[in-house]
């Protein structure tokens, strides 16, 4: 098993490089980079794409950025250097720090290949740089948004497992009965409703939209959070997360419940279950003493991947509807603003975590069923 884990760990390196290379290459063809975004802000316009696709007027001299009307070329040069698209090179006669104002210094463009290598070199040391637009390091920015993602991911995953597994077992035991039929219908309806639409429905019904003002409309905590007792903080926290967690969880019930049901049905019909029943074992002993471990293999082993998917796949719509500032909104805003340090820094971290979770899922398989030997299969 150790050799298998080592091979999987070594495979992370080329896989992660491939992920970063593909996404870095794609960004080279996307119009409206971070400098265009700054130009749009300076000129009081919110749409950088409109600036780069035309809009009248002439661009500043020595500038390749369309729409840079009235922007000094010196400022554009400084922005390119600051954002890593160019460097300052000086002659040996220059004294002191490199400065574009000095006649001995000039701007030198940095090619895409070199920028990628420099970025990956920094990421290996877990140096993800600073956001272009927030003046805060990428690590600090992610940690700042993490509580929202932890809330949605952790609670949604736990609630889904706590409800779906018993429900799936019950449906398998009572397969074909009216209980199985109407619960399947309810699950499919819940799965078919988009999460953001269900979130709006919850707001209308329970957050003062048109009916009852039971739950708060926004945020994770109240304004007087610091003044509350420990128990008061717990109640306030649960009070705020009730609606967004419910909206996030609703769509995950169907897959997990039906997966549990089908796994149990597959095991219940096997020969060893019939043998156990023939020996006179109670139905509960057969179900939870023999069937449960085998049937739950795929369900339990998939927990890490499911948690990561919910944890780092925070819905931008859910966060926007409930005014939650999490990783979902962070990723969306970074993509819109072309905030490359945030985009690639989070992609690198989450990509690495996703690959590690794949290994963890394999270990979960072995933990649940020691008969599985990935090393032998790989050989």
UniProtKB/TrEMBL annotation:
<dbReference type="GO" id="GO:0055085">
    <property type="term" value="P:transmembrane transport"/>
</dbReference>
<feature type="domain" description="ABC transmembrane type-1">
    <location>
        <begin position="146"/>
        <end position="365"/>
    </location>
</feature>
<keyword id="KW-1003">Cell membrane</keyword>
<protein>
    <submittedName>
        <fullName>Microcin C ABC transporter permease YejB</fullName>
    </submittedName>
</protein>
<feature type="transmembrane region" description="Helical">
    <location>
        <begin position="295"/>
        <end position="322"/>
    </location>
</feature>
<keyword id="KW-0997">Cell inner membrane</keyword>
<feature type="transmembrane region" description="Helical">
    <location>
        <begin position="9"/>
        <end position="26"/>
    </location>
</feature>
<feature type="transmembrane region" description="Helical">
    <location>
        <begin position="181"/>
        <end position="207"/>
    </location>
</feature>
<dbReference type="GO" id="GO:0005886">
    <property type="term" value="C:plasma membrane"/>
</dbReference>
<feature type="transmembrane region" description="Helical">
    <location>
        <begin position="237"/>
        <end position="260"/>
    </location>
</feature>
<feature type="transmembrane region" description="Helical">
    <location>
        <begin position="342"/>
        <end position="368"/>
    </location>
</feature>
<dbReference type="Pfam" id="PF00528">
    <property type="entry name" value="BPD_transp_1"/>
</dbReference>
<dbReference type="GO" id="GO:0042884">
    <property type="term" value="P:microcin transport"/>
</dbReference>
<dbReference type="InterPro" id="IPR000515">
    <property type="entry name" value="MetI-like"/>
</dbReference>
<keyword id="KW-0812">Transmembrane</keyword>
<keyword id="KW-1133">Transmembrane helix</keyword>
<keyword id="KW-0472">Membrane</keyword>
<comment type="similarity">
    <text>Belongs to the binding-protein-dependent transport system permease family.</text>
</comment>
<feature type="transmembrane region" description="Helical">
    <location>
        <begin position="150"/>
        <end position="169"/>
    </location>
</feature>
<dbReference type="InterPro" id="IPR035906">
    <property type="entry name" value="MetI-like_sf"/>
</dbReference>
<keyword id="KW-0813">Transport</keyword>
């Amino acid at each position: 098993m150790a050799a298998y884990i080592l091979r999987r760990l070594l495979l992370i390196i080329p896989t992660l490089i491939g992920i970063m290379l593909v996404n870095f290459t794609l960004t080279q063809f996307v119009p409206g980079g971070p400098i265009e975004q700054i130009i749009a802000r300076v000129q009081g316009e919110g749409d950088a794409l409109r600036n780069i696709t035309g809009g009248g007027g002439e661009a500043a001299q020595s500038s390749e950025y369309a729409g840079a009307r009235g922007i000094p070329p010196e400022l554009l040069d400084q922005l390119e250097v600051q954002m890593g698209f160019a460097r300052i090179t000086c002659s040996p006669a220059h004294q002191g720090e490199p400065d574009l104002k000095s006649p001995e210094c000039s701007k030198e463009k940095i090619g895409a290949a070199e920028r990628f290598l420099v970025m990956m070199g920094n990421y290996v040391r877990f140096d993800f740089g600073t956001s272009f637009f927030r003046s805060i390091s990428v690590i600090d920015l992610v940690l700042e948004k993490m509580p929202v993602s932890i809330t949605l991911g952790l609670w949604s995953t736990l609630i889904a497992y706590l409800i779906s597994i018993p429900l799936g077992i019950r449906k398998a035991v009572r397969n074909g009965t009216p209980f199985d039929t109407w619960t399947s219908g309810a699950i499919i309806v819940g799965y078919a409703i988009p999460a953001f639409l269900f979130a709006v429905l919850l707001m209308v019904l329970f957050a003062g939209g048109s009916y009852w003002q039971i739950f708060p409309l926004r945020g994770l905590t109240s304004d007087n959070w610091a003044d509350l007792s420990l128990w008061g903080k717990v109640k306030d926290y649960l009070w705020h997360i009730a609606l967004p967690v419910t909206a996030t969880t609703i769509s995950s019930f169907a897959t997990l419940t039906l997966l549990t049901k089908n796994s149990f049905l597959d095991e219940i019909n096997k020969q060893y279950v019939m043998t156990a029943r023939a020996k006179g074992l109670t139905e509960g002993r057969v179900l939870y003493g023999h069937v449960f471990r085998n049937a739950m293999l795929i369900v339990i082993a998939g927990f890490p991947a499911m948690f990561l998917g919910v944890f780092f796949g925070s819905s931008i719509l859910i966060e926007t509807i409930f005014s939650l500032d999490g990783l979902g909104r962070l990723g969306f805003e970074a993509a819109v603003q072309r905030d490359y340090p945030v985009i690639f820094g989070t992609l690198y971290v989450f990509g690495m975590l996703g690959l590690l979770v794949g290994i963890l899922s394999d270990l979960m398989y072995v933990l649940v069923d020691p008969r599985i030997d990935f090393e032998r299969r790989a050989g």
